[in-house]
Design a protein that fits this description.
The protein is of the alpha+beta class and 69 residues long. The chain has a domain at 25-69. The chain is built from 1 helix and 2 strands, in the order H-E-E. It has one helix spanning 2-23; strands at residues 40-45, 48-53. A two-stranded antiparallel ribbon has the order 1-2. The longest helix is centred in the first third of the chain and has 22 residues, at 2-23. The structure holds zinc ion (ZN). Zinc ion binds next to strand 2.
């Protein structure tokens, strides 16, 4: 009985994680967010798939932005 409840909880947590990552679409370069009204598109490149706004979609290489100091 207890085991069944635990399994149900695990399923709930996993589906919530998937949802949150799907709604957190933001440009990999400038961090513009889909939530803010920007158009974010996934682009597959040699070194992986990145989410990019209109402005950065044309880039051939993605340089990881420096962390804020
Ligand atoms: Zn951008």
């Amino acid at each position: 009985m207890v085991k069944t409840v635990m399994q149900d909880m695990q399923v709930c947590t996993e589906s919530r994680l998937v949802q949150s990552s799907a709604t957190a679409a933001e440009c990999y370069v400038c961090r513009k967010r889909f939530d803010d009204g920007y158009r974010i598109t996934a682009k597959t490149m040699v070194h992986g798939t990145f989410l990019l706004c209109n402005e950065h979609y044309g880039l051939k290489w993605i340089v990881k932005p420096r962390p804020p100091i």
